[in-house]
Amino acid sequence: MTARRARLAAEAKVNLGLRVLDREPSGYHRLETLFARIDLADEIVVERTAAGCTLDVQGADVGPMERNLAYRAALAYLQASGWSTGLAIALTKRIPAGGGLGVGSADAGAVLRLLDAMAPAPMATAPVLMAWASRPMAMESVWLASALSPPA
């Protein structure tokens, strides 16, 4: 039996360096970046429910649920995994949005890691999760792919 509820800190990051490289056929630019995780984190709690997918945000207003990266990551995981029950995501915001700290991507990465840990048939974070994380989203994909990896 897998866990019904799990919690994880979604750590912020600070950019130490960023170089914009050539443009890819997708229209996005390749990036070279160096960043470090910092001690500031949002808290994510995921709980199994009977059906559906909900997101409850405490703290800063982050806009509509449908545009939230953590919510979108959960929907992608549910679809890719064939998850048979619903889930409720509780997000406690401690990282300021829009400050370049990778908060949306960190939250999405934490949700993916929690869901994979709770799944009856985990997808082992790769390759399905990494494929979702690395789809074109500009800088977000860089941090999200990193956020899927456990802290060093």
Major beta sheet, strand line-up: 1-2-4-3
Ends: how far apart?
A: 29 Å
Question: Mean pLDDT, as a whole number?
Answer: 80
| Unreliable spans | none
The helix/strand series, from N terminus to C terminus, equals EEEHEHHH
Radius of gyration: 15 Å
Overall 3D geometry? globular
CATH topology annotation: Ribosomal Protein S5, domain 2
Count of folded domains = 1
CATH architecture: 2-Layer Sandwich
Please, could you describe this protein's structure?
With 152 residues, the chain is of the alpha+beta class. It has a single domain, classed as Ribosomal Protein S5, domain 2 (2-Layer Sandwich), CATH 3.30.230. The protein contains four helices and four strands. Helix 1 packs parallel to helix 2 and helix 2 runs parallel beside helix 4.
Features:
single chain; 152 residues; alpha+beta; Ribosomal Protein S5, domain 2; four-stranded mixed sheet; 4 helices; 4 strands; globular
Short note summarizing the structure:
The protein has 152 residues and is of the alpha+beta class. It has helices spanning 69-81, 103-118, 128-133, 139-147; strands spanning 5-23, 29-49, 53-58, 86-92. It is 29% helix and 35% strand.
Set down the secondary structure blueprint:
Blueprint: E1 5-23, E2 29-49, E3 53-58, H1 69-81, E4 86-92, H2 103-118, H3 128-133, H4 139-147
Parallel strand pairs: 3-4
Antiparallel strand pairs: 1-2, 2-4
